[in-house]
């Protein structure tokens, strides 16, 4: 596959790193920053361009990896050279109808990836409208499968849903990790030890949740001895509304995805 990324920032780099490890693809990246171009070429051995190619072919796949706010201008400038290339947009919010209007093509798949793609542990939600063919869907899924797990969504609003779960989710997890490391430091552990204690705990808990036949609520109950220490911590979390805050945060995240789509898709 010949894949051209438009935008070589955080998420594009994460996907490119997985594709390069897999091998067998021709990858180029269009990126305005000279420093980022040099870094991408050096780290991944990809072709880094300042401007999009003069013409794309029907067999090409173009991955739109710029910020949602940059997407309209990027699509309008791509339209004359796009030909009939398949477009994969990883941008939050902006819907297929607006993309199709700006690109003059509806051969589009939307994807919501996440940054653990960088280490091959990404989770991506994909949506393709009815007119997109099976081989285009397979190509889009193959790109994302190179960096992790792939889930097809039945409706485009599923992209907003999954943004609130897995797209933004790594930041929620890092927030929890950061909070625990800060408290471990406050208890007197040095930075490296605090990090190992907390990351080891996450690693172990996730591995146990994946391997166990028990659901996570039971696994939590198994740590929580009656009258013991964990019970106090969980009681404080509940009293402070931590679970409700996490759920409300996810709802706000989803609402922002919808709002971005409404604001940025107007014309
Ligand atoms: N980060 C994440 O966890 C996730 C991000 N996404 C989506 O991925 C997209 C990219 O996000 P992210 O990688 O974090 O953002 P970044 O800002 O890291 O990357 C965007 C890149 O696009 C470059 N750029 C700007 N204008 C153009 C242009 N005209 N042509 C080519 N490149 C251009 C930017 O350069 P410069 O900095 O010089 O402006 C920047 O390097 C967003 O739409 C986001 O919604 C989706 C899922 C997860
Ligand atoms: O914060 C954002 O808007 C992007 C989309 C999902 C994760 N990062």
From TrEMBL:
Pfam families: F420_oxidored, P5CR_dimer. SUPFAM superfamilies: 6-phosphogluconate dehydrogenase C-terminal domain-like (SSF48179), NAD(P)-binding Rossmann-fold domains (SSF51735). It is found in: Cytoplasm. Its EC number is 1.5.1.2. Keywords: Amino-acid biosynthesis, Cytoplasm, NADP, Oxidoreductase, Proline biosynthesis. GO terms for cellular component: cytoplasm. Gene3D superfamilies: NAD(P)-binding Rossmann-like Domain, ProC C-terminal domain-like. Residues 2-93 form the Pyrroline-5-carboxylate reductase catalytic N-terminal domain. It catalyses: L-proline + NAD(+) = (S)-1-pyrroline-5-carboxylate + NADH + 2 H(+); L-proline + NADP(+) = (S)-1-pyrroline-5-carboxylate + NADPH + 2 H(+). NCBIfam families: proC. Belongs to the pyrroline-5-carboxylate reductase family. This is Pyrroline-5-carboxylate reductase. The lineage of its organism: Bacteria, Pseudomonadati, Pseudomonadota, Betaproteobacteria, Neisseriales. The gene is proC.
């Amino acid at each position: 596959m010949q894949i051209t990324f438009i935008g070589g920032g955080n998420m594009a780099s994460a996907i490119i790193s997985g594709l390069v490890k897999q091998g067998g693809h021709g990858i180029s990246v269009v990126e305005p920053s000279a420093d980022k171009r040099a870094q991408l070429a050096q780290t991944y051995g990809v072709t880094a361009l300042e401007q999009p190619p003069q013409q794309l072919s029907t067999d090409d796949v173009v991955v739109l990896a710029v910020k949602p706010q940059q997407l309209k201008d990027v699509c309008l400038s791509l339209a004359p050279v796009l030909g009939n290339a398949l477009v994969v947009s990883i941008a939050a919010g902006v819907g297929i109808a607006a993309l199709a209007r700006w690109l003059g093509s509806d051969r589009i798949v939307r994807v919501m990836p996440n940054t653990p793609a960088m280490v091959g542990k990404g989770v991506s939600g994909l949506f393709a409208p009815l007119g997109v063919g099976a081989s285009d869907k397979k190509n889009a899924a193959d790109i994302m499968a190179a960096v992790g797990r792939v889930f097809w969504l039945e409706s485009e609003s599923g992209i907003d849903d999954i943004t609130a779960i897995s797209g933004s989710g790594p930041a929620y997890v890092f927030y929890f990790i950061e909070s625990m490391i800060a408290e471990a430091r406050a208890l007197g552990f040095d930075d490296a030890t605090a990090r190992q204690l907390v990351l080891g705990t996450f690693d172990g808990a996730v591995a146990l949740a994946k391997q166990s036949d028990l659901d996570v609520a039971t696994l939590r109950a198994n740590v929580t001895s009656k009258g013991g220490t964990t019970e106090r911590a969980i009681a404080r979390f509940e009293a402070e509304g931590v679970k409700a805050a996490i759920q409300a945060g996810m709802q706000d995240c989803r609402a922002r995805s919808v709002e971005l789509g409404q604001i940025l898709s107007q014309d």
